[in-house]
């Protein structure tokens, strides 16, 4: 099983959105028996909470299931149990790298690294900007490229 973890700050806006979108794409590709997906936040404020209403709304509008999404905090052990950790911005990347254990083999990246046509490096935080649709579009396009990357690397 290949394990993919999306990481943002609160785990209520961007990373649960990416988790749900990527799961949708993995299921559509018939790869759900090969790829397991989760998300976490580097912060602890929203542990146990469902996604932000803006994330919930944009996913529902796009017929993407949101069941089971519940915020949790990133833990050091995640860097050993996940093969790919995909962060939403540069702060998340730094904070994830800071808890990576010596044994960890995981690849830590930023989601937008996989998108060849976007000049931004960070997925903006819709908790602050309110731009859930813009973030959804960036996330969904980038997830297509991420899936291509993983399929190539893992011969799927
Ligand atoms: P997220 O957005 O990292 O995309 O889930 C945020 C949600 C909550 C907070 C910050 C960012 N907060 O400070 O509570």
UniProtKB/TrEMBL annotation:
InterPro entries: LMW_PTPase (IPR050438), Ptyr_pPase (IPR023485), Ptyr_pPase_sf (IPR036196), Tyr_phospatase_low_mol_wt (IPR017867). It catalyses: O-phospho-L-tyrosyl-[protein] + H2O = L-tyrosyl-[protein] + phosphate. It holds the Pfam family LMWPc. Its EC number is 3.1.3.48. Gene3D superfamilies: 3.40.50.2300. GO terms for molecular function: protein tyrosine phosphatase activity. The active site is at residues 8, 14, 125. Residues 2-149 form the Phosphotyrosine protein phosphatase I domain. Keywords: Hydrolase, Protein phosphatase. It is an enzyme of class 3 (hydrolase). Signal peptide: none annotated. CDD domains: LMWPTP. Belongs to the low molecular weight phosphotyrosine protein phosphatase family. This is protein-tyrosine-phosphatase. It comes from Salsuginibacillus halophilus.
